[in-house]
Structure formats: C-alpha cells, structure tokens
Task: inverse folding
C-alpha cells in the first residue's frame, strides 16, 4: 500500500528555513509519487492567499510559489479553520484548490493506515 504523508507547517516568514523545508519535503514527495496532504497553519496560513508565496525569500531555497504549485497540482493543500478565522481569511480569498478544514480532518488523515505525519 502506498504511503501517505501528512505535513503540517506552522512556520512562515517568521521561521523561513523551517517553512521552506516543509514545502520542499511536500513537493519532493509529490514528485516521488507519494500521496501528500499539506496543512498550512499559523504563519504559513498567509501563503494560501494569491501572491503571498511570491513575497517569501530564502537564499539557496527553491521558490515557494513553485513548491506550492507542485503540491496543489499533485496533492492536497488545507488551511486550518481556526488559523483562517484569526486572520480573516475566507474560502473566497484562497488560491484555487485550497480547502479550509479543522483538526478533526487533520487527525483523521494522520491516523490512517499507511500515513506518516510530520510537523514543521
């Protein structure tokens, strides 16, 4: 049975290396044929808005918009319900393909047989 990787990233521009690592692992996993569910929480929530990933810079790292596009094309991207509400982000605001869901959905994905959860 193929594995599923459930990745939760809590970091954004406040912790750029941790943020970039999460997006890189997610994109590489998608490219490798792994089922990926990327959860954006905390400061990474902002990257669900159009143009925000392009504002992120980290030397010697792959461009965040390319990593996010790769995950959107081959995996799932979810914005935390509470994180969205705290930032005034609605379903109408987010990039196409991003869903908004809560902890219950995260837990159900993370405990599936064959799933591996990572938190950055």
Result:
């Amino acid at each position: 049975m193929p594995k599923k990787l459930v990745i939760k990233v809590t970091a954004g521009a406040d912790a750029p290396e941790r943020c970039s690592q999460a997006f890189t692992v997610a994109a590489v996993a998608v490219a490798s044929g792994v089922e990926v569910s990327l959860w954006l929480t905390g400061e990474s929530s902002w990257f669900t808005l159009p143009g925000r990933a392009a504002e992120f810079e980290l030397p010697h790292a792959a461009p965040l918009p390319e990593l996010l596009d790769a995950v959107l094309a081959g995996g799932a991207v979810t914005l935390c319900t509470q994180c969205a509400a705290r930032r005034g982000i609605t379903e109408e605001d987010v990039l196409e393909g991003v869903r908004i869901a809560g902890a219950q959905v995260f837990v159900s994905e993370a405990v599936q047989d064959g799933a591996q959860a990572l938190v950055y």
Summary: Residues 16-31 form the longest helix (16 residues).
